[in-house]
């Protein structure tokens, strides 16, 4: 099972907009920016997945989280103050100065099963993230384990629910990988933040969660479909649920 260290998931682009989630953090992982704290619940929902990658950085300071967008932007009809982006073209800002615009959204409701677990993909979103401040750009690069990050950058977000049909609680290792193309794959060591990894799902329980990854820098990605595969699940570090096959999703 992958080693999961604790890290702030304040959000990966307010809608990741993928990601945005405000989970407690402690230590930045050198492999990913996941939250690894195992949380057992019958109906657990991860923190709001609507905020920018920059907000996930463990180095973000209170003073850096006071960005105020210009009035000319907040008065636009497509501006969503709450950050709950639902339609293509809608945009918002995070607290460190990242402009998050939803460019694509699909609701596949597709399921994938392995052993006692069923994975249901509910939403796929592509978000354009524009760092309006140096702090936003720097923190996003840190959260994505990059030495530098070109803005705008695009993030892909999956929202999904994991159902445990068994009587025994299991700890999921989250998403194994998201394949964007034959030459580009996101995983725990390569620009993927997965809020589900390390979470424990009670018997007959479920976990509503999300994952966000870096799709491209500067230019809008051209892929029409992606593939996702989930890793195994464990009880006392012993694998009891096998990894899944690849599931193809339309973007």
UniProtKB/TrEMBL annotation:
Keywords: Signal. The keyword Cell division does not apply. PROSITE patterns: PROKAR_LIPOPROTEIN. Residues 30-75 are annotated as: Disordered. Residues 1-26 form the signal peptide. It comes from the Bacteria. The keyword Signal applies. Residues 30-41, 51-64 have a biased composition (Low complexity). This is DUF4352 domain-containing protein. It comes from Levilactobacillus brevis (strain ATCC 367 / BCRC 12310 / CIP 105137 / JCM 1170 / LMG 11437 / NCIMB 947 / NCTC 947) (Lactobacillus brevis). The lineage of its organism: Bacteria, Bacillati, Bacillota, Bacilli, Lactobacillales.
